[in-house]
Amino acid sequence: MEVKLVQLQKHGDDRGALIALEDQKNVPFPIRRVYYLFGTKPGVRRGLHAHHNLRQMIIAVRGSCRFLLDDGRERVELLLDNPAQGLIVESMMWREMYDFSEDCVLMVLADAHYDEIDYVRDYKEFIEMCRGESDEK
Ligand code: T46
């Protein structure tokens, strides 16, 4: 599986750093929603779902967490700990986030508004959908 990590250009000077996010420039889709996860309790696993259509970019703007991506055939784990890296999570990717540092803030840019209908929260159903898609090819 190809993991898409966008390197975000750091601007700034001796006062500190600044990163700008612009859709269709360093964010490869129109930005329709921004949300952030913080205050995640120790030992908690978040995510545990896929999306039918949603595309997202995920940035650890502070702290770190581990990220699992699963496309139904392969699983990849990575550490998100760099505010200058954006992880692209495409549709139909199972994701889990865990090992959050106490100070972790994950910022997420999404290409659509919140819609619970777009979630696949059952792993078995997700795998069956992936198999169905690969049979069609
Ligand atoms: C994802 C990962 C990285 C809203 O009302 N609006 C929103 O835009 C979102 C994202 C969530 N919510 C509500 C729905 C739940 O009652 O906030 C609550 C927590 O959401 P959820 O359990 O889905 O959170 P995570 O951390 O498991 O997953 C979230 C996103 O939902 C998901 O799309 O990819 O972060």
Summarize the structure.
This protein has 137 residues and is mostly beta strands.
Protein architecture, described:
By secondary structure, this protein is mainly beta. It has one domain (4-130): Jelly Rolls (Sandwich). 10% of the residues lie in helices and 43% in strands. The protein has one helix and twelve strands. It has one helix at residues 123-136, and strands spanning 4-7, 11-13, 16-18, 33-38, 46-51, 56-62, 65-70, 75-80, 85-89, 94-98, 105-110, 119-120. The model has no long low-confidence stretch (mean pLDDT 96). The structure holds dTDP-4-keto-6-deoxyglucose. The site of dTDP-4-keto-6-deoxyglucose has 10 residues, from strand 4, strand 5 and strand 6. Keywords: Isomerase. GO terms for molecular function: isomerase activity. Pfam families: FdtA.
Query: Which outline best applies?
Result: globular
Round the mean pLDDT to the nearest integer and report it.
96
Largest sheet: 5 strands, antiparallel
How is the largest sheet built, in terms of strand order? 1-9-6-11-4
DSSP summary, beta strand count: 12
CATH domain topology:
Jelly Rolls
User: Which small-molecule ligands are present, each listed once?
Assistant: dTDP-4-keto-6-deoxyglucose
Q: Architecture, according to CATH?
A: Sandwich
Which spans have pLDDT < 50 for at least 5 consecutive residues?
none
- What is the CATH top level name? Mainly Beta
What's the alpha carbon Rg, rounded to whole Å?
16 Å
Helix-strand pattern, N to C? EEEEEEEEEEEEH
Strand content: 35-45%
Terminal-residue CA separation: 17 Å
CATH superfamily: Jelly Rolls
Provide the number of structural domains.
1
What structural class do helix, strand and pairing data support?
mainly beta
Proportion in helices: 10-25%
Contiguous helical run count: 1
